[in-house]
From TrEMBL:
GO terms for cellular component: endoplasmic reticulum membrane; endosome; trans-Golgi network. SUPFAM superfamilies: S-adenosyl-L-methionine-dependent methyltransferases. Its EC number is 2.1.1.-. The keyword Transferase applies. One of its GO terms (biological process) is methylation. Its main location: endoplasmic reticulum. This is Methyltransferase. It comes from Dipteronia dyeriana. GO terms for molecular function: methyltransferase activity. It is found in: Endoplasmic reticulum membrane; Membrane. Belongs to the methyltransferase superfamily. Keywords: Glycoprotein, Membrane, Methyltransferase, Signal-anchor, Transferase, Transmembrane, Transmembrane helix. It is a single-pass type II membrane protein.
Length: 637
């Protein structure tokens, strides 16, 4: 922190200069006002109004005013001959009430330390239990927004650093022992003194995720860079995703906030990408053709039911040629039916339902071996179009944009792949293998489907390389290799910021705001990065203290007339870890307003010039959230 404080001193000079200028301005106004009131007072032979007007002005302009008090003639104040007149006799508008405008943002009660606004258990109970709709996002109305800062639990500590964090987490940070009891036999998580350890087990892989992934690797190639992005539906503590990272595969894991207390919270604490989520009645918040591989290990999603609706959604987000891996019921029921406490008829029927749905989506079953079954999505839809004569359902979707996915209702139609002219062609374009994929021109760009050219794309990659290098000159923690793990980019455009961090041991959640002019999330996935959609007027589907670092490029100008700046900042404060840092890029006027709010939020911040020149209106606000927690529990009672 020593380096950051010396940095404050130097960079604050800009602000001081600005404040000084304002002070002189107010002092001049004040002198004019004082003289005016003095003469009005003399003329009226009345003393009351003069004094009141002056004192009002004095308190509002705080520190400039010590000289102003003396401009009230003392003999008039003491004149006892007249009755005091308290009505105002001037019609000049008062200066804006500065003190009142600064929001008061106290810490919330300790019971909110795990508050997730849009997945709140109390609120969710009002919604339909059918198909788990009540576990979907249900955000509070504007009146229900908390106007306080979510505290870290008492005893909170900086998480273990990656890669140690894959295997350990502090108990004080996620004080829930329930899973260690419930999933004891399955080796999900153990508890020991002050910490949890994660042996890497899961319901279908009690012997560890690495053995399980090795088994998958015998059926499909996980080593040649052709598989980079994955999604784990119903992820548990995300051990599958955690162990895939060593193969350079980036998995987005999701699970609902349910009775398996805090599973996603554990994942995030371990430094593994995850979101709270459920597949119920709306689309998953990802574009079409995003993932190279989808995985469900005993994830309890009824794949064969509701006209195959859930498998149809997996089909939408799988890229052409992508894989779907299923383990757990009903796969290998011959061996497990007794352990699962289900009849063989029941399991057999479930399996045939899934097989039939997969065939109707034109998926090919690659193999079933032991507890694993793997299907592959076709590389284009030429055959699939022809065989719609055989499979009456599902038909191809007509209207809906396949990449729109924010409260978008699920449908029971098949998302058509981009047209191809040859049966061997990859619909939508062939992706490069990882790591070339990161900087290769993504198919969605070279096909011209967005108003962004290949030159724009390469320029953006270069631009962010330079910007991130500049960021590291003043954010010492960002520069420190391994200090940060979970990173959020709130408005990521083409993912250039994340691409520039590729040499660091971090992962980046790339958010494309629903309000962004161009929907670029598909490009981000084509580069082999991961992300989600989000409306920043609402809370994110994640736990408090998820991220070590948050980057907000032009977020506040985008949401300027959409919702309160203060609410977005409170949400950022909620999901930021204590001692984490934030970089906000925006117009200087917006940044000055933001700074007034962050100053009362216990963020240490300063505003820095644009990397190119101080003449740009765009500036950079750099802030660090101070360490503070809820009070000790016994102080409360
Ligand atoms: C792409 O580049 C061209 C030429 O440099 C520029 O005029 C245009 O604004 C850029 N488009 C985007 C979306 O950045
Ligand atoms: C189908 C099946 O095996 N059902 C059994 C599940 O377990 C309960 C006892 O916990 C038995 O009563 C059921 O017969």
């Amino acid at each position: 922190m020593a380096s950051t404080s010396s940095f404050y001193a130097s960079k604050l000079s800009y602000l001081n200069w600005k404040t000084k200028r304002t002070n002189i301005f107010y002092a001049v106004i004040l002198i004019i006002l004082c003289s005016a009131f003095y003469f009005i007072g003399l003329w009226q032979h009345s003393i009351g109004p003069t004094q009141i007007a002056t004192t009002t002005t004095t308190t509002e302009l705080s520190d400039v005013t010590s000289t102003a008090v003396s401009c009230t003639p003392p003999h008039e104040i003491n004149n006892p001959q007249h009755d005091l007149d308290f009505t105002a006799h001037h019609y000049l508008q008062d200066p804006p009430p500065e003190a009142a405008r600064v929001p008061h943002l106290p810490p919330c009660d300790a019971k909110f330390s795990e508050y997730v606004p849009c997945e709140d258990a109390q609120r969710s109970l009002k919604f339909d239990r059918d198909r788990l709709i009540y576990r979907e996002r249900h955000c509070p109305e504007k009146e229900g927004l908390l106007k306080c800062r979510v505290p870290a639990p008492y005893g909170y500590r900086s998480p273990f650093r990656w890669p140690e964090s894959r295997d350990y987490a502090w108990y004080a940070n996620v004080p829930h022992k329930w899973l260690t009891v419930e999933k004891k036999g399955q080796n999900w998580v153990r508890f020991n003194r002050d910490r949890f350890s994660f042996p890497g087990g899961g319901t279908m892989f009690p012997h560890g995720a690495d053995v399980y992934i090795h088994d998958i690797g015998k059926l499909i190639n996980l080593n040649d860079g052709s598989i980079r992005t994955a999604i784990d539906t119903g992820c548990g503590v995300a051990s599958w995703g955690a162990y895939l990272l060593s193969k350079n595969i980036l998995a987005m894991s999701f699970a609902p906030k349910d009775t398996h207390e805090a599973q996603v919270q554990f994942a995030l604490e371990r430094g593994v990408p995850a979101l709270i989520g459920v597949i119920a009645s709306i689309r998953l918040p990802y574009p079409s053709r995003a993932f190279d591989m989808a995985h469900c290990s005993r994830c309890l999603i009824p794949w064969g039911q509701y006209d195959g609706q859930y498998l149809i959604e997996v089909d939408r987000i799988l890229r052409p040629g992508g894989y779907w891996i299923l383990s757990g019921p009903p796969i290998n029921w011959e061996k497990h039916s007794r352990g699962w406490n289900r009849t063989t008829d029941d399991l057999q029927e479930e399996q045939s339902g899934i097989e039939k749905t997969a065939r109707s989506l034109c998926w090919k079953k690659i193999e079933q071996k032991g507890d694993l079954a793997i299907w592959q999505k076709p590389t284009n839809h030429i055959h699939c179009k022809i065989n719609r004569n055989v499979f009456k359902k599902p038909l191809f979707c007509k209207a809906q944009d396949p990449d729109t996915a924010w409260y978008t209702k699920l449908e029971t139609c098949l998302t058509p792949l981009p047209e191809v002219s040859d049966i061997r062609e990859m619909a939508g374009g062939q992706l490069a293998k990882w790591p070339e994929r990161l900087t290769a021109i993504p198919p969605r760009i070279y096909s011209g489907s967005l108003a962004i050219t290949a030159i724009n794309f390469s320029a953006d990659t270069q631009l962010w390389k330079e910007r991130v290098a500049y960021y590291k000159t003043f954010d010492g923690q960002l520069a420190q290799h391994g200090r940060y793990r979970n990173v959020l980019d709130m408005n990521s455009y083409l993912g250039g910021f994340a691409a520039a961090l590729i040499g660091d041991p971090v992962w980046v959640m790339n958010v494309v705001p629903v309000e962004a002019q161009i929907n670029t999330l598909g490009v981000i996935y084509e580069r082999g990065l991961i992300g989600t959609y989000q409306n920043w007027c609402e809370a994110m589907s994640t736990y408090p203290r998820t991220y070590d670092f948050i980057h907000a490029n032009s977020v506040f100008s985008l949401y300027k007339d959409r919702c309160e700046m203060e609410d977005i900042l409170l949400e950022m404060d909620r999901i930021l870890r204590p001692e984490g840092s934030v970089i906000i890029r925006d117009d200087v006027d917006i940044l000055l307003e933001i700074k007034r709010i962050t100053d009362v939020m216990q963020w240490e911040s300063s505003i820095v010039d644009h990397e190119k020149s101080p003449h740009y209106r765009e500036k950079i606000l750099f802030a660090v959230k101070k360490y503070w927690t809820a009070p000790t529990p016994h102080q409360n009672s």
